[in-house]
């Protein structure tokens, strides 16, 4: 029996959509299967009562995102991302210290002592490759080990707040090389942008040009020599090639025929969970920064307070505010299965310290949980990454930011495009003859 599809892409996040876009441009028959009822994955946006709630990624940059900007130009969205135009700050000793991820921070300190600033400049001298972090001179050092020889502020008021707040990482468990590579790639906050209409704008634009089946959770992918079966609750399809554009733990679970060497990397490539409470307010607080990183030494339960209405003016109606509170990694396990009102209570009560009057201003909320938030980039995964990458290109391939252990959307886009290139190289003739799915097995097809 021949394959019914040329290429099946499992996962409708930005990595899967980027892969499908490249394949469709090359004339391939490609269908995307997404478990949720919407596309976007960790770049999804919800529209609630006039608020634009970015549940995942918060911004892109004019630097370090070449593949993303290429897709934006192709889809006519390159003018859509608007400059954030606000500073990022750190909470220390009862107040906001501006200048994190900004040249201003070298003068103001952004919460760092002079000694810590000098230590950081010395420690980060040289190039850290964000696409091949295992080549770094830091080797397997964790973030905590990288910072240990230097002034204590470097860990407590820079490295830990950034890796925990932005990635959900624990500095004692996560490797320093991907973190420093990412810092060097994306550049200062002066180049950061947010999409008009929500951070899922690019995902929605790509999906509109593709064949996307939503609400189709994939249970198994079973590879054979020249095809693979994609099995879901509502049926199964056969494809000449499959791209698994899902988090590594999900890929490990569904790809039941993955070779043993691949399974070792997939097992090592753990993800950190994240919990966010998006609070809709009857006023617009302005602390002078759009994002406040909170060190664990300053709070046991809050890592970030993000003022979405300062990030982009369309995120809240006129006169209203939208504040996102991100839970500290230390408290996330207790909140993952907690009721929404409990999550809001815990996070809003603690965030009151940083935004006085916040609790009384809340008129509504959205709680979002990512059980597979971002790749954790452990030293064990770093050891196995290059070998895994060298074996890519089979009937079942992979896409996602975890392939380079770089937790940002550009890595996901880039991985999707590279996965598409490998599929095209493996089957250059594009000779697939689409078959007809048996009616009992055919999944419901929707265009997102």
From TrEMBL:
All copies of the Amine oxidase domain together span 14-424
Q: Provide the alphabetized UniProt keywords.
A: Oxidoreductase
The UniProt annotation puts the region (Disordered) at: 425-448
| Keyword Oxidoreductase assigned | yes
Q: Does the keyword Lyase apply?
A: no
Q: Which Gene3D superfamilies match?
A: FAD/NAD(P)-binding domain
Co-factor requirement: FAD
Listed transmembrane segments: none
InterPro entries recorded for this chain? Amino_oxidase, FAD/NAD-bd_sf, Flavin_amine_oxidase, Zeta_carotene_desat/Oxidored
Q: Which Pfam families match?
A: Amino_oxidase (PF01593)
- This one is known as Protoporphyrinogen/coproporphyrinogen oxidase
């Amino acid at each position: 029996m021949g394959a019914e599809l040329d290429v099946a892409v499992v996962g409708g996040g930005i990595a899967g959509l980027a892969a499908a876009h490249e394949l469709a441009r090359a004339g391939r028959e490609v269908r995307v299967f997404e478990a949720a009822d919407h596309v976007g994955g960790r770049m999804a946006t919800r529209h609630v009562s006039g608020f634009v709630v970015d549940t995942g990624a918060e911004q892109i940059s004019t630097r370090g995102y070449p593949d993303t900007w290429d897709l934006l130009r192709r889809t006519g969205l390159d003018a859509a991302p608007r400059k954030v135009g606000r500073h990022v700050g750190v909470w220390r000793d009862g107040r906001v210290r501006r200048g994190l991820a900004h040249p201003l921070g070298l003068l103001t300190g952004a919460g760092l002592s002079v000694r810590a600033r000098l230590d950081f400049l010395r420690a980060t001298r040289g190039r850290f490759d964000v696409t091949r972090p295992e080549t770094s001179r830091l080797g397997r050092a964790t973030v905590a080990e990288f910072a240990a020889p230097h002034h204590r502020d470097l860990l407590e008021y820079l490295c830990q707040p950034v890796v925990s707040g932005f990635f959900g990482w624990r500095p004692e468990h996560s490797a320093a090389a991907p973190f420093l590579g990412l810092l060097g790639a994306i550049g200062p906050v002066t180049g950061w942008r947010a999409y008009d209409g929500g951070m899922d704008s690019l995902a929605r634009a790509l999906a509109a040009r593709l064949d996307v089946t939503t609400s189709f959770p994939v249970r198994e992918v079973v590879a054979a020599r020249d095809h693979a079966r994609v099995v879901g609750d509502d049926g199964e399809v056969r494809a000449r090639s499959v791209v698994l554009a899902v988090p590594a733990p999900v890929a490990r679970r569904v790809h039941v025929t993955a070779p043993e060497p691949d399974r070792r990397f997939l097992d090592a490539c753990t993800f950190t969970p994240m919990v966010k409470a998006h609070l809709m307010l009857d006023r617009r607080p302005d602390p002078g920064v759009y994002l406040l990183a909170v060190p664990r030494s300053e709070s046991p339960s809050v890592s970030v307070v993000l003022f979405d209405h300062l990030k982009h003016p369309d995120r809240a109606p006129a006169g209203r505010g939208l504040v996102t509170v991100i839970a500290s990694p230390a408290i996330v396990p207790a909140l993952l299965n907690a009721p929404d009102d409990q999550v809001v209570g815990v996070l809003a009560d603690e965030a009151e310290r940083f935004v006085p009057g916040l609790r009384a201003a809340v008129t509504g909320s959205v709680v979002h949980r990512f059980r597979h938030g971002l790749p954790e980039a452990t030293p064990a995964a770093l050891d196995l990454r290059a070998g895994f990458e060298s074996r890519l290109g089979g009937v079942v391939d992979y896409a996602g930011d975890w392939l380079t252990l770089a937790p940002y959307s550009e890595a996901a886009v880039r991985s999707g495009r590279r996965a598409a290139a490998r599929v095209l190289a493996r089957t250059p003739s594009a000779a697939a003859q689409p078959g007809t799915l048996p009616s009992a097995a055919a999944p419901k097809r929707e265009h997102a």
